[in-house]
Amino acid sequence: MTPGQADDGNSTESSRTQTETEDMVFRCLQRARGLEEAGQFGEHVQGGLTLQRRQHVEFLVAGLEELSAGHASLDASRPWLCYWILHSLALLDALPSEAMLNRVAEFLARCQDKDGGFAGGPGQMAHLAPTYAAINALTTIGTDYAYSIVDRQKLHRFLCSMKHPSGGFTMHQGGEVDVRGSYCGLAAAALSGVLTPELMQGSGDYIMRCQTYEGGLGGEPGNEAHGGYTFCAVAAMVLLGQVHRLDTVRLERWVLRRHMALEGGFSGRANKLVDGCYSFWQGGLLPLLMPLLSSRTHVLVSGEDDRTASGVRSGHEYPFDLEALQRYILSACQDPSGGLRDKPSLRRDYYHTCYCLSGLAVTQSLLLSNDPVLGGLSNKLLFTDAVLNVEKSKAQRALQHFNALPKLQG
Predict the structure, then answer these.
(1) HSE of 88, CA atoms in CB hemisphere, 13 A
(2) How far is CA 326 from CA 47, 124, 251, 285, 297, in A?
(3) Is 352 one of the annotated active-site residues of the chain?
(4) Which neighbouring-strand residues pair with 40?
(5) How far apart are CA 346 and CA 350, in angstroms?
(6) What does pTM read for this prediction?
(7) Residue 272 among the catalytic residues
């Protein structure tokens, strides 16, 4: 048994699965360290710390051309597939040809509902999740044609129609209300230059009610704290300018407790396994909180005593181990044939490729100028906007474009 989380001598299905995962990841980490010590780097070396750029790009570009029958269950998530693939390629600085980008933009135009917002596919119902994904994808394409597709007037009308009396957003007409809706609605509005007081009203109050006793946030008031929902909530509060209203001491403590001691990656909830996608959902939270945490000299990790994390906000120290997270992504999440995955026992997919690379990009952006990039400069990704999760220069250009347009009428 590898060193890791103890089961207090009471073996359960959860503790056995945790031990199996630790053993599996430990072998990956050992192999990568052995290759590193032997000086074996490069894309031809599998299982090491080199980012397999060529294989990832081939996997991603192939997904834009044709998807296997196994993706049929994602028929209502087609803008998400466009976003996951394009964002991953943008971070790798390997966006496809202009002709291919125009084809993607034309497809997304067919997903736009006649009354505003975007659907999961042509002819489907407008929904906040694919609206966020479509606007992020069009932003990543970054052409004037892509920008022109967004009908801002109708988008704003659609977003206003999704507002709920609680202050939150419904995901679609008659749908559920949760913090995904808050984030998707506010992010889409902010990026498109239509974030109005009407959309912001009551949003912060709703999100505040979703913070739990643990410190993280659930999808709805009263739900268990969860990494994905916590990111959505915190990023939404950043967009609202209200992140200071959250209990950031408990929030940071909760996030740091999700950082797995042996694996180096993050889990999404208490008593759950490490998952590569939380490299972004959890790892990307702390940069959003840093302005509020910079005045504190340490972070309380235990509720019972004064043990502290390596949380001094100066020099090379940071609240969690940046190198360990990079090691997990590079050694355990890369599929030898391209693409990234949750953990070594699972298959690659576009979702995990997107969020593993996003987490790696965020982590690299936190390094000081004289800190080495783990695995060498060939591993360096372009930075992502930590709030919107769009490649940084693409996000800046879109914000400049949309905010320069005339204000909405009516």
Answers:
(1) 33
(2) 14, 39, 23, 16, 25
(3) yes
(4) none
(5) 13
(6) 0.92
(7) yes
Query: Collapsing DSSP states into helix, strand and coil, what is residue 1?
Result: coil
Tokens in use for 26? 């430990």
Active site residue 269: yes
Of 226, 259, 341, 343, the catalytic one is 226
Report how far residue 165's alpha carbon sits from residue 142's, in angstroms, rounded to the nearest whole number. 35
Ordered per-residue pLDDT tens for the chain, 410 residues = 444 456 677 889 989 999 999 999 999 999 988 887 776 655 555 557 999 999 999 999 999 999 999 999 999 999 999 999 999 999 999 999 999 999 999 999 999 999 999 999 999 999 999 999 999 999 999 999 999 999 999 999 999 999 999 999 999 999 999 999 999 999 999 999 999 999 999 999 999 999 999 999 999 999 999 999 999 999 999 999 999 999 999 999 999 999 999 999 999 999 999 999 999 999 999 899 988 765 443 333 333 333 233 333 333 456 789 999 999 999 999 999 999 999 999 999 999 999 999 999 999 999 877 788 999 999 999 999 999 999 999 999 999 999 999 988 76
- Look up residue 251 and give its two tokens: 């929030």
**234 and 243 in contact (C-beta within 8 Å)?**
yes
| Cβ neighbours of residue 320 closer than 8 Å, sequence gap 6 or more | 256, 259, 283, 286, 309, 310
Taking CA atoms, 405 is separated from 24, 148, 189, 199, 398, in Å, by 52, 11, 14, 19, 11
111 is known as an active-site residue: no
343 tagged catalytic: no
Distance CA 222, CA 201 (A): 21
Residue 124, CB-side half-sphere exposure with 13 Å CA sphere: 20
Distance CA(375)–CA(224), nearest Å, equals: 37
User: Which of 172, 269, 343, 394 is an active site residue?
Assistant: 269
Question: Is 144 among the catalytic positions?
Answer: no
Give the span between the Cα atoms of 210 and 232, in whole angstroms. Answer: 11
342 is catalytic: yes
Beta bridge partners of 349: 340
* Tokens linked to 189: 């509005």
